[in-house]
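#struct-pred
JK: can someone run the complex with flavin-adenine dinucleotide? inputs below
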Amino acid sequence: MAHEVLVVGGGIGGLTAAALLSARGVNVCLLEKEPRGGGCATTSERFGYTFETGASLYASWQTNEIHARVFSELAVAPPEVRPATPAYVVRLPDGRDVIVACDDEEFYENLRAAFPECADAGVKFYREIAAVGSALRRIARRVPDLRTASLARALRAALSEARVARRVLAGLNHTAAQHLSGTSHRFRRFIDVQLQIFGQRDSSACAYLYAAVALMLPRWGMYAMRGGAASLADALTESIRKSGGTVRFNAPVLRLAYDAQGLAIGVDLLSGERVEATRAVVSNLTVWDTYGKLVGASRTPDSVRRRLKDLHGWGAYLLYLGLDEETREHLPADHILALTDWQENEVYDPESAQFMFGSAPSWDTRAPEGKRAVTVSTFTESSQWFSFHEDETEHEEQDQAMLETWWERIHKAMPELGAGVEVIETATPRTFYDYTRRRLGMVGGVGQSLDVFGLNSLTHRTALTNLFMVGDTVFPGQGVAAVTQSALIVANEIAPPGKR
Ligand SMILES: Cc1cc2nc3c(=O)[nH]c(=O)nc-3n(C[C@H](O)[C@H](O)[C@H](O)COP(=O)(O)OP(=O)(O)OC[C@H]3O[C@@H](n4cnc5c(N)ncnc54)[C@H](O)[C@@H]3O)c2cc1C
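RT: done, structure tokens with the ligand placed:
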């Protein structure tokens, strides 16, 4: 059976690309190996709880941002979102809470109170990123495909921000740390813990321009979604079908199929079936898996192979918890980003120094009566979960040891929890691998250091002219909003709106 476009993978990237293309009248078929779409943005159901597999904070749901732009084309309504106010509180190792408020004066006051030793330098840093980040955000609205846009379009977009263009250009090759002079170690760790969450790198490595946007996302406002991000996946699936597209679940793809000229003509499924594409194939797999599995080693150029070898992503270790409603009342917010160790005179190590505690909101508790569903996410080096396991017992032992370590750290950082919280389930990089088949269960994209940011970022284009990529390992990066933008870029390249 032939379609114009095949989309391999039904994560948010693949679903959004397929929904946009089918809304534009393209004959699309999406192939997803699982019985449901969503990929990393899914839910896990246990004992009456529905847990999000992520931190459950979503950016860019304001009326003029990426999600509104996408849903304005679709055949369905967007899921219900409500502001998470504040987006989160950063809890420091000395127990001090810094509320990451949207209001400038309130936030700067919080900074001054928390970091009296470098209050002016800290506020100055944030004032600068507010200007730079806002300019970049406006540019992204006008030119979502900035990385591959023509020089003329990119220049026009930059010139429209003439007031900050010099600062943006000057910061192009800077790390965030280069803009933190005059701030204390404590303040830098406050920045590190946030950059690690949003960009998988601390301030010493994270690109300054990426940091300017990432650190402003919670200040611009983040949202909770009714039912979690799985409801976004469900809405996109419904939209594809409503506009005449095909969604096939339980359809694992084995590899691309080629014609004699080496052009992709479709895919072969694990079942042996061939599905043809007359126009393009879109891969929602990570860059490693797009080349390693779909394209195949023999057709992967050496330059790409070398590049992929150097790219690194983190794994996630999750604890799914049941929280007493009464205990939640003692916490400062639904989301607490905890820094558990100052790590003085050391390189920042997120594996032992931070976790994100994310509770479902009061208006969507996703839990039995009197309880809330909570997901705690931590970073872990994925490869250690895939080596030295002779049988399943070793994986279980490793999981148990990790759980014990984190249980102690969580209680130490959040003494209010007391006995008002219980462990329901855990998830390791192996769980993510089983569910998404992402290489080594690495999630959340690639670390946004200078060698993978800006002009160095991986784009939606591949070594094959009719194979494109969407998802969190390509421009503009990680998170549901960025992945949505990557899908818009590909949809615009294959079938620009209004041009069919
Ligand atoms: C712990 C954690 C917390 C997070 N918290 C947040 C948050 O709070 N806010 C936010 O915005 N983002 C968050 N993220 C990031 C966000 O969830 C991801 O970046 C995003 O969902 C990735 O989507 P994707 O489309 O790139 O790919 P994926 O979600 O990986 O989707 C790929 C899909 O392809 C399918 N697939 C793979 N191989 C095949 C095959 N051979 N054939 C067919 N199908 C295949 C998989 O099953 C999967 O459905 C978090 C991520 C993690 C892991």
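RT: quick notes.
The chain has three domains: 2-40+229-311+445-494, 43-87+221-226+314-443, 103-215.
The chain has 16 helices and 19 strands.
JK: thanks, will look after standup
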